[in-house]
Amino acid sequence: MNLSNQEIFLASLLFIISSFFILIPPCDYLGFSQERKTGGKLMFLTDTKNALQRAAAYQNNSQVVSEQSPITELSTSEPRDVCTTKALRGTNYTIIYNAMPKTGSRTLSTISLQLFKKRFKSNTRFHTIAITPKISELRRNSTKLLEYYRQTSQKTAFIRGHNAFVHPADRSYICINTIREPIPWMTSQYYFRTNGDSRGREHSKNKTTSDLTFDECFSRGLLSCKPQIGNYLAYFCGDDPICNTPGALKRSKANVDKFLFVGLNEEFKDTIRILELLIPDIFKGLTKDYEKKFSELKRSFTTISKKKLSEKTEETLRRDPNVRVMYEFYEFVKDRFHRLKKCLLQD
Ligand SMILES: *[C@@H]1O[C@H](CO)[C@@H](O)[C@H](O)[C@H]1NC(C)=O
Ligand SMILES: *[C@@H]1O[C@H](CO)[C@@H](O)[C@H](O)[C@H]1NC(C)=O
Ligand SMILES: *[C@@H]1O[C@H](CO)[C@@H](O)[C@H](O)[C@H]1NC(C)=O
Ligand SMILES: *[C@@H]1O[C@H](CO)[C@@H](O)[C@H](O)[C@H]1NC(C)=O
After folding, report:
1. Which of 28, 146, 298, 334 is the most buried (most CB within 10 A)?
2. Threshold 0.70, pTM exceeds
């Protein structure tokens, strides 16, 4: 085997970084300590050499850990410190990606699927499944979604759908998501609906607005370009009626801790790198695949004929109370992302 210096360097770096992790169940700081202590369903790390190193590193950070209970007790009332997010070992999980649309979710799903095909040939759970727009009723009903996740997870390791947030109270689920800055998100969403992308207009349904720019639509006060809290926050707040009101902000912020990780569309490569670090036994090689496929994916998934917003529309949007709620949430998530990135990817 001929390893270049760079590869050796990267491998050591990865080793050092990964030695700072130890497994912790995801989404579980809220009220599952009982279940956690009795073992649960997650596979635990057996690589003792690494585990000892990790334990030493943790103790240096004055956190007491042991192989079987590597969890720092977290109070339900305080937000989780993102730097306590630990890598999950093993592959016996179902990843729920209740993807906010237009944040790179098709890219992430496509490279994940390709990776699974390569790495888990004989394991039929490793494919991705998307909840299609046909079942839109399901996507907005948390009771139905929970049932759907329960059934689907038997045979699928990666479920993607533009679904309202819901948190299955079972530690074998990992919730992830991605987010994007509100105003670019709104316009992207709008043009995607009206123009589609290079893969055609299969997703673009609304003929009424198809000839209007976002500016024109907005100045006419049409519904399809009106900022609505629920459109943005449903993926973090859920299906409760409160999720379409300013009350959605507080609830969504509290829910962020139930995701293992929320990535940023604007920093997609780092999002991929962090995902690979946090779930290494499932996503090993994801970053490399992403880099290889980047241009091709970008070509197929970029919305066509996006028009730049006028300054006037942008200013009006920024003053809109609903848009301000969205920005407050976005900044909250972005700040956490940056803190996590600093802890994990120090380069
Ligand atoms: C922990 O700290 C000691 C003393 O500072 C150091 O010698 C040791 O290498 C550290 N271990 C790890 C895993 O960071
Ligand atoms: C994986 O988890 C499921 C339920 O979460 C369990 O029934 C199954 O036995 C586990 N498989 C392995 C190989 O641990
Ligand atoms: C969600 O689905 C459940 C179960 O099918 C149903 O009882 C409930 O009425 C639905 N909720 C809404 C708001 O449609
Ligand atoms: C299409 O856009 C019009 C105008 O904004 C709106 O009234 C209508 O509900 C939209 N239809 C769909 C299917 O989204």
Report:
1. 28
2. yes
Residue type present at position 156? T
What tokens does 194 get?
A: 């009206």
Rounded CA-CA distance 29/14 in Å is: 27
Is 155 touching ligand 2 by the criterion CB < 6 Å?
Answer: no
Structure tokens at 274: 């962090």
CB of 107 within 8 A of CB of 99? no
Q: 172 CB less than 6 Å from ligand 2? A: yes
SS3 for 174? strand
62 lines ligand 1 (CB under 6 A): no
- Closest residue (by CA) to atom 12 of ligand 3? 141
Which tens digit of pLDDT belongs to each residue from 33-92? 222 332 333 322 333 334 444 444 433 343 322 222 222 333 344 567 788 788 898 999
Give the pLDDT confidence of 106-153 residue by residue, as tens digits: 899 999 999 999 999 888 888 888 876 567 788 889 999 999 999 999
d(CA 174, CA 33): 16
143 lines ligand 3 (CB under 6 A): yes
- φ, ψ (nearest 5 deg) of residue 248: -65, -25
Residue nearest to atom 1 of ligand 3 (CA): 141
